[in-house]
Design brief:
By secondary structure, this protein is α+β, with helices and mostly antiparallel strands. It is about 65% helix and about 5% strand. Strands 1, 2, 3, 4, 6, 7 and 8 form a seven-stranded mixed beta sheet that branches. Strand 7 (about 195) and strand 8 form a beta hairpin. Helix 28 packs antiparallel against helix 29 (about 620-630).
């Protein structure tokens, strides 16, 4: 858990406790909800916490806030504080500093936050929702000057100007109250759905999707989650929500965060230099310009989409006509791998946000105005089946909905759409522990669509739950063998096959399958299940590893930890002993140097993440110290060198220099002593003193790794220094730089002697 996540967890604990003590409803939302299911805590790269709360519950929280909030905490919402610059509320730590872009010119609390996205009751009539949405867009435009909201909905610029006139001449408070009276006029008891109060896009939810709440684990806290959790996650993220995205697709939020000061102190520094009036006027003109040009911009985008659609359709038609088997032949053979190749370009364009949209800030216009590429019904149906058979069921359903909006669906497509909805019902039944109903719903789908991975995976869950209770174990084994025949590289089934082997006592074979499962799936649920099953064994594993190392059985220790590191790469004790075993078993100096470089890179990377107090990186200390020892450093000096990697305070650095000096008792190791003292001085910023120690190290007897390190330091400095000297020479006189740089080496003769000794 990162340091920021530690702060957020503390805030969330406080808010959760207040809600439970006062019977207030909330549910975990967005990426935080994914973290609940997929990680039972934060997604590793997540940097915020989102919850939904019904409007009535939020209002009650505001009423009691003066008596229940801890010190340095505040509730922020625009209907209470007109200086607040967002449409949804927040729970804020006022003794911290985290400014988002829209808060730069404001005066609202801007510390670490929990986002509380309010759920406003909305009638079943869509016209009422559109009325709410229009006023919410205007409301958002007036509250937040930085962002343009209404352009995506083509809110008339005249409507904005009318409310802006009221805002300017009648006052902010009076104008916002008028809008609030319209937006918040519906009672929860009379409404079957909620609109999430977010200016970006006020999503609609059925009430029973959210409430009554269920409880799940989040960082060892029982938290409230949506009643139909799987439906919510599929709606928000598609059927792929359980998969861990590639590194480049992991979203985070941008905020100016400064440790050790409050947001007020930061604002006091920069606000006097900002022309707030000009920024507000510029923002208003930008909103007017954007709203006035919204229809034109959307028409231009639509024309661009049509041109791209035409070329994409031509490309698809050529691919289909050139294939010897054609679509019918490939469907008959269920060759969806080849079909996916044929439709690859089509999927890239048709499923992209500009064409199909998404219910988010940037994709909402296209979501309500999708562009459907004009291909034959035969090709469209084959494409939808390909999506279903390649685990993109949510995208197939969305495409079928769009197709239905353009006219009547052909019977085969209508059947496919209905069957996808049946599958979702089965998933929902499974979530509610109605396993028999879920299995009965799935059975006819399995007959109509054999070998659909999603269907096979759901059925495997039913079989495995019975097998864990000693029922139909043989049936589960046969089914899992068949699943692996169909999907040999899918870690989902490898994990279940491993479980079955474990039940039969074949633990070694099971562990190897678990390791393969970990490597061959990015399904977060599967990885969480592996963690839960294997983590209890991690403690005994590292004890066994230590015992093997104590008895000198280094190869056995390495073999053991190599397997368990594959099994539990995020288990810190397992990772510690994996690297310690590698440090003990390395056979060549090159291997040891590569190991040291790998460890140092990991420490830098994990420090950059902001791990709380760097606890995660300290697991490498023993391995790093052992590596220095095997590279020729005495044990105590190796420890000093490792401590130097972690040291940050100047007092700590000076203490390490003194400890290094105490190691000079061994004459044959004085080169290492001077090298470490030089490293300390360099980290202190005393470059000349560092190089004097390095030169003294070169004068000491002995060769080996320390001599290689010293050669790298000096030759790198000479190379980089000469390049800088050339730059200075081109710009003018380089004599001052040369005097300063080469002065640390003494005379030219001394430099020549140093180089000769290093080369020798």
């Amino acid at each position: 858990m990162t340091e920021k996540q530690e702060h957020l967890l503390q805030l969330f604990r406080e808010l959760d406790e207040i809600c439970k003590e006062n019977n207030l409803r909330y549910v975990m939302a967005g990426g935080t909800a994914i973290g609940v299911v997929r990680n039972e805590g934060f997604i590793p790269w997540d940097d915020d916490v989102d919850i939904y709360m019904p409007r009535d519950d939020w209002n009650k929280l505001v009423e009691i806030s003066s008596s229940v909030l801890p010190e340095h905490r505040a509730l922020q919402c625009v209907d209470v504080d007109r200086n607040y610059t967002n449409t949804f509320p927040r729970y804020v730590a006022t003794d911290s500093c985290a400014l988002h872009k829209h808060q730069i010119i404001g005066r609202d609390s801007a510390g670490e936050i929990i986002d509380v996205l309010t759920l406003d009751p909305i009638p079943a009539d869509d016209k009422e929702y559109e009325k709410y949405r229009t006023h919410m867009m205007i409301y958002s435009e007036l509250v937040n000057m930085v962002v343009v909201y209404g352009a995506r909905w083509e809110i008339p610029v005249t409507t904005y100007l009318r409310w802006l006139f009221s805002y300017t001449f009648l006052g902010k408070d009076r104008t916002l109250k008028k809008l609030e009276k319209i937006m918040y006029s519906y009672e929860e008891a009379d409404c079957p759905r909620y609109a999430m109060r977010w200016g970006g896009c006020p999503f609609l939810f059925d009430k029973d999707m959210m409430f009554p709440v269920k409880y799940m684990n989040f960082e060892n806290i029982k938290v409230m989650v949506p009643n139909r959790m799987s439906d919510y996650l599929i709606w928000h993220y598609g059927d792929e929500w359980s998969y861990i995205p590639p590194h480049g697709e992991r979203e985070s939020h941008d905020a100016v965060t400064v440790e050790g000061i409050t947001y007020k102190e930061l604002r006091d520094d920069y606000l006097p230099g900002i022309r707030k009036g000009k920024l507000r006027r510029d923002s208003v003109w930008r909103k007017i310009y954007s709203l006035a040009g919204a229809k034109r911009n959307h028409r231009m985008q639509h024309k661009r989409n049509l041109l791209l659609a035409k070329s994409t359709v031509m490309d698809l038609q050529a691919r289909i006509s050139e294939h010897p088997q054609g679509i019918k032949g490939l469907l008959a053979e269920r060759d969806f791998k080849e079909l996916n190749e044929i439709f690859n370009r089509y999927f890239q364009i048709q499923l992209s946000a500009p064409f199909i949209g998404r219910e988010d800030f940037g994709g909402i216009y296209a979501f309500y105005h999708p562009v459907l590429l004009e291909i034959s019904d035969e090709a469209f149906y084959a494409a939808m089946l390909t999506l279903v058979y390649t685990e993109r069921i949510g995208k197939a359903w969305r495409m079928l909905v769009v197709k239905e909006q353009t006219g009547t669906l052909p019977s085969d497509m209508a059947q496919l759409k209905s069957d996808i909805e049946l599958f979702r019902r089965a998933v929902c039944d499974y979530e509610f522990k109605r396993c028999q109903e879920a299995e009965d719903t799935l059975a006819p789908l399995m007959e109509r669509y054999p070998e659909v991975p999603g269907f096979v995976k759901l059925k495997s869950r039913f079989l495995m739950e019975r097998a864990r209770n000693g029922i139909d174990v043989v049936e589960a084994e046969i089914y899992m063998d068949e699943a692996l025949r169909l999907f040999p590289e899918d870690g989902y089934f490898l994990k279940y096959k491993g479980e079955l082997l474990w039940m039969k006592g074949r633990c070694a074979d099971a562990l190897e399958l678990f390791a393969q499962a970990r490597e061959k799936t990015n399904n977060g649920i599967t990885q969480l299940e592996l963690d839960k099953f294997l983590n209890p064994y991690g403690k005994e594993t590292v004890k066994t590893c230590q015992m093997l190392l104590d008895y000198g059985q280094k190869e056995s220790a390495m073999k053991l930890m190599d397997l368990w590191y594959r099994l539990l790469p995020d288990n810190l004790p397992v990772r510690e002993y994996y690297y310690l075993s590698r440090a003990n078993v390395a056979k060549t100096r090159q291997e040891m140097e590569e190991l040291v470089e790998e460890i140092l890179k990991r420490i830098d990377k994990e420090n950059a993440k902001g791990s709380a107090e760097n606890n995660d990186t300290r697991i490498y200390k023993r391995a790093l110290t052992r590596a220095w020892e095997r590279l020729g450093y005495p044990a105590e000096l190796a420890g000093v060198r490792t401590d130097l990697v972690y040291a940050k305070e100047m007092d700590d650095l000076e203490w390490l220099a003194e400890r290094a000096k105490d190691c000079q008792i061994r004459k044959e190791k004085r080169a290492q002593v001077y090298k470490v003292i030089g490293d300390v001085r360099r980290k202190q910023g005393q470059t000349d003193a560092a190089f004097k120690n390095y030169q003294e190290a070169v004068r000491q007897p002995g060769t080996g790794f320390v001599r290689t390190e010293l050669a790298r330091i000096f030759f790198t400095d000479l190379y980089e220094g000469s390049r800088r000297a050339a730059v200075y020479a081109k710009a003018g006189d380089a004599s001052d730089y040369l005097d300063q740089w080469l002065g640390r080496y003494g005379s030219i003769e001394e430099l020549q002697q140093l180089v000769e000794k290093l080369l020798w």
